[in-house]
């Protein structure tokens, strides 16, 4: 494939989609704090990767425990290669081989597909859900404690980047061009219809807005550039990035799920937004025909 970068920044809408370490009977959402003093929940890139790989049914790459005791880690098996396992082709690996005299050698492959955390575009307001297991407790004529879960429903933005020229190539291994393109197509379709199972809920992580393209420069142009204020998308900032050079001007595409933002008409008109399925169809077509 050509020495180009595919990047898409996506906006999704989700509720309480990633919890971190809790304490006592309180479950805490993963959060970061910005300079404005507000906290913003996020869905980690590891969580997004897990759901993508699981839904693609690529989570069959063999693994092996390495080390002993508290230093034992789980790594991909040394015999696993990118030829047979798309997961380690696109998301990289670290493998440790045993050598003579108890020595070890480690080989790594940097991720070809990189994901950012999905950061909330609306601040966290310390809302809680109070839960009990009353239904089962009544059956046993027992009492039960109250559990507290932090909750938030928000838009989130995250970015996916792909080094197209590195797909399907690892040292002396190279898969056929058609298979490389099939793997990218499968990945894009998974992101288009992504979901996440969490605490008895299935959250729809399919994007309501997507902006990006295939560029000569491998810069994630629109990462950290999505802003929402009272459900209004900041169009001016995105237009400025698009117009910043010929590469972004010629190759940027926008997908949009109608009536998601309050400035709906402006998004469609100023960004020349297409329907979401048209956006992903266009990206896949470009990968097949031009890369």
What can you see in these coordinates?
It contains eight helices and 22 strands. The protein is α+β, with helices and mostly antiparallel strands. The strands form seven sheets. Strands 1, 3, 4, 9, 10, 13, 18, 21 and 22 form a nine-stranded mixed sheet that branches. A three-stranded mixed sheet has the order 2-12-11, with no helix packed on it. Strands 5-6 form a two-stranded antiparallel sheet. The longest helix is centred in the middle third of the chain and has 16 residues, at 177-192. The model has no long low-confidence stretch (mean pLDDT 93).
Briefly note the structural class of the backbone: alpha+beta
First and last CA, distance? 5 Å
Q: What's the number of helices?
A: 8
Q: Kindly state the mean pLDDT as a whole number?
A: 93
Number of strands: 22
Largest sheet: 9 strands, mixed
Shape: globular
Computed over alpha carbons, the radius of gyration is: 22 Å
In percent terms, what proportion of residues is strand?
A: 25-35%
- Helix fraction, binned, reads 25-40%
The run of helices and strands is EEEEHEEHEEEEEHEEEEHEEEEEHHEHEH
Low-confidence runs of at least 5 consecutive residues: none
């Amino acid at each position: 494939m050509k020495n180009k970068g595919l990047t898409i920044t996506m906006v999704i809408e989700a509720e309480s989609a990633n919890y971190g370490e809790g304490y006592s009977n309180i479950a805490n959402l993963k959060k970061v704090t910005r300079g404005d003093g507000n906290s913003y929940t996020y869905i980690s890139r590891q969580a997004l990767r897990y759901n993508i790989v699981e839904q693609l049914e690529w989570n069959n790459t063999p693994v092996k425990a390495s080390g002993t005791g508290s230093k034992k880690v789980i790594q991909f098996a040394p015999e696993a290669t990118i030829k047979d396992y798309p997961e380690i082709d696109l998301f990289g690996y670290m493998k440790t081989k045993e050598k003579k005299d108890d020595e070890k050698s480690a080989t790594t492959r940097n991720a070809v597909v990189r994901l950012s955390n999905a950061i909330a575009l609306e601040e966290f307001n310390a809302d809680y859900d109070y839960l009990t297991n009353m239904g089962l407790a009544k059956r046993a004529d027992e009492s039960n404690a109250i559990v507290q879960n932090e909750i938030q429903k928000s838009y989130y933005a995250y970015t996916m980047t792909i080094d197209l020229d590195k797909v399907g190539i690892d040292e002396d291994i190279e898969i056929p061009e058609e298979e490389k393109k099939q793997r990218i197509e499968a990945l894009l379709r998974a992101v288009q219809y992504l979901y996440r199972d969490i605490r008895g809920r299935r959250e729809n992580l399919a994007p309501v807005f997507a902006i990006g393209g295939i560029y000569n420069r491998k810069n994630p142009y629109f990462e950290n550039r999505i802003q929402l204020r009272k459900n209004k998308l900041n169009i001016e900032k995105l237009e400025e990035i698009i117009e910043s050079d010929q590469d972004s001007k010629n190759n940027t595409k926008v997908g949009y799920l109608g009536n998601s933002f309050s400035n709906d008409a402006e998004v469609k008109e100023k960004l020349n937004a297409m329907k979401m399925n048209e956006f992903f169809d266009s990206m896949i077509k470009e990968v097949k025909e031009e890369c």
